[in-house]
């Protein structure tokens, strides 16, 4: 059983994850639905967001994570080929922001496939695809024929709610560089780090353009993508955080529930979807993807990508501009403010 389940998880095939049994109803679970911005605010406002029982669960999650020893056989996978997605959900992100990791999490928790518009053979057309990756409006390298039609032209076939995944640009830019470097050198994805000399050359040649593109993607999806609505802004840093990640992962899966023909996961007791047992199971699945599987692919850093003083100052400026331009879109603001504060602290500490 364990080896079969492992193969199913790694393949991301059309299987449905049921943490115990399928839910007969999702109404109670939706009644406790949490938005991503609430998840981000957990640290400062737990008492206002959750019941006292959930508060105690959340506070103990970090300690339990290090103690939890789970295997994939703890989670049952039920095959049901009759399931189909009514409308796939867009996942928009700047390159290097962790979209592949998020797609692996979604495939593991829903049993459905994810795809990308750059896959010319499928182009997110299959009925088993629950999430579709895009870097629109950026047209960065590759075969132009793979970009496909703009998302707005595809609106009738896609869910109106979209996900935007963001990562601090100081980390997203070198991650994108490494992806391109690995392609150029024909090495496995996420296996090596490009040389520091090549990174410095790439950074100095492309920094201003890439930074503007990072901001542009957020602005376009927030303000120019009618009839789409940005339902969730996901910070990569929260997704990989061992305290916030499992809860955020659960929230994402709950939202995707509405796009499929029947419940895609469940709990022993749906009325207690946030009890200790449920949290432990979500944590277990999160660990398998983020801490174990991803670790096997993660690059070993031989150096920390650096920036000139002018570039650090530009990072702060771009983040402030993004906050100003998205002032009417509060989902983005806490994340952007955090990035700006972090950059300012680094600048002060190194001055």
TrEMBL record:
InterPro entries: P-loop_NTPase, Sialate-O-sulfotransferase. Keywords: Signal. This is Sulfotransferase domain-containing protein. Belongs to the WSCD family. SUPFAM superfamilies: P-loop containing nucleoside triphosphate hydrolases. The keyword rRNA-binding does not apply. Residues 1-18 form the signal peptide.
């Amino acid at each position: 059983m364990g080896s079969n389940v492992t193969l199913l998880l790694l393949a991301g095939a059309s299987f449905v994850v049921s943490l115990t049994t399928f839910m007969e109803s999702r109404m109670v679970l939706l009644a406790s639905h949490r938005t991503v911005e609430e998840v981000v605010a957990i640290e400062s406002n737990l008492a206002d967001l959750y019941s006292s029982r959930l508060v105690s669960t959340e506070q103990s999650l970090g300690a339990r994570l290090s103690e939890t020893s789970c295997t994939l056989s703890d989670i049952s996978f039920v095959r049901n080929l009759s399931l189909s997605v009514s409308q796939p959900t867009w996942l928009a992100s700047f390159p290097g922001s962790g979209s592949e990791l998020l797609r692996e999490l979604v495939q593991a928790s829903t049993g459905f496939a994810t795809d990308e518009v750059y896959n010319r053979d499928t182009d997110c057309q299959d009925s088993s695809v629950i999430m579709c990756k895009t870097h629109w409006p950026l047209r960065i390298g590759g075969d132009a024929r793979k970009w496909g039609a703009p998302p707005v032209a595809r609106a009738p076939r896609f869910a109106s709610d979209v996900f935007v995944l963001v990562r601090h640009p100081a980390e997203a830019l070198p991650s994108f560089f490494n992806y391109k470097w690995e392609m150029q050198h024909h090495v496995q994805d996420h296996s090596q780090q490009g040389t520091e000399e090549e990174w410095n050359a790439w950074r100095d040649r492309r920094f201003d353009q890439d930074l503007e593109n990072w901001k542009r993607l957020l602005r376009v999806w927030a303000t120019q993508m009618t009839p789409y609505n940005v339902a969730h802004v996901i910070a990569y840093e929260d997704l990989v955080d061992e305290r916030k990640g499992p809860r955020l992962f659960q929230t994402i899966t709950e939202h995707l529930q509405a796009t499929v023909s029947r419940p895609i996961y469940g709990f022993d007791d749906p009325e207690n979807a946030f009890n200790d047992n449920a949290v432990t199971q979500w944590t277990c699945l999160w660990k398998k993807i983020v801490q174990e599987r991803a670790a096997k692919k993660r690059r070993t850093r031989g150096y920390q990508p650096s920036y000139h003083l002018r570039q650090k100052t530009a990072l702060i400026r771009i983040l402030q501009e993004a906050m100003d331009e998205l002032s009417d879109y509060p989902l983005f603001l806490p994340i952007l403010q955090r990035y700006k504060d972090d950059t300012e602290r680094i600048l002060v500490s190194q001055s």
